[in-house]
Amino acid sequence: MKKLILLLFILLCYCKVSAEEIKSPADLLDRMQKSYKNIKSYSYINEQGEYDTFSKEMQKETAKDYGDINSKYGDGKSTEISEKPEYKKGIYEVKLYKPYAIRMKIISSDYVPSVLINSEFIYRPASDPKNFTVKLLGFGFIPVEFQRDVVTENTGDFLVMNWTVDLLQLDYLFKNGKAVLSKKEKIDNRDTYVLEFKFSKDTKPTKPEYKLGDIPSQIKYKVDYTLESLERAKYSSVKYWIDKKDLIIIKREEYIGNKLHSSRIFKNITLNNINKSDI
């Protein structure tokens, strides 16, 4: 009898492990999407870098949008505009409370004038979907807040720097590239699946079609621009490291001509620990 019970226990354990095994890249995406529905809030530190071929116009736009603020509250120096593409880095703290309330703090960035370092960008679409708030901090004066329009002002990646948009982008890559699950790796003390998408030189991406879901309609243009990066940048491959336990994205790398173009790694991750009042 004891042997029978032991055998049944082993069989149940085996069935449980087997049920949890990822069978294919598509199976992984499906489980990620389902798992994400159970995450109500999160925060992380996003360390990113990219060889930005499109930085010149972005830098000009940022300098124009925040030049008056830098003159009044910052060091007053004009932002230096790079004439040639170069590697840009940034570290950002991101907090999201579903459906889409976001608070992002710029810890460091090669993109912005000095006055924006340590500043916070806040978007609360439930109360005001058309505007976001910029809060200047860390310059020895009382924090200054002002409103910016989500459509007319340069927001960088602030409005799309989250896993909601990342999952849409994953789905888009599935529809346009060849997905392969490769060896498992450990990233930042987390066991991960490595998911890689490869694209042929003659790939002509289909136009992204998706449901907005939790994403406010006012920022659909930003989501479209993010998804269309595959066509703009002509990636040769994109790699993701997916946490095995929580099924969340830990790291992403993009390659152009088989050379590293950009990378993002998410650290200090917390799940379901952010309150509405934290945004």
Q: What's the quick description here?
A:
By secondary structure, the chain is α+β, with helices and mostly antiparallel strands. The protein has helices spanning 2-20, 25-37, 55-73, 163-176, 220-227, 229-233; strands at 41-52, 86-97, 101-109, 120-123, 131-136, 144-149, 178-187, 190-198, 237-243, 249-256, 259-271.
How would you describe this protein?
With 279 residues, the protein is an alpha+beta fold. The protein is built from six helices and eleven strands. It has helices at residues 2-20, 25-37, 55-73, 163-176, 220-227, 229-233, and strands at residues 41-52, 86-97, 101-109, 120-123, 131-136, 144-149, 178-187, 190-198, 237-243, 249-256, 259-271. It has an eleven-stranded antiparallel beta sheet, with helices on one face. Helix 2 runs antiparallel to helix 4. The chain is globular, with a radius of gyration of 21 Å. Residues 6-19 have low confidence and may be disordered.
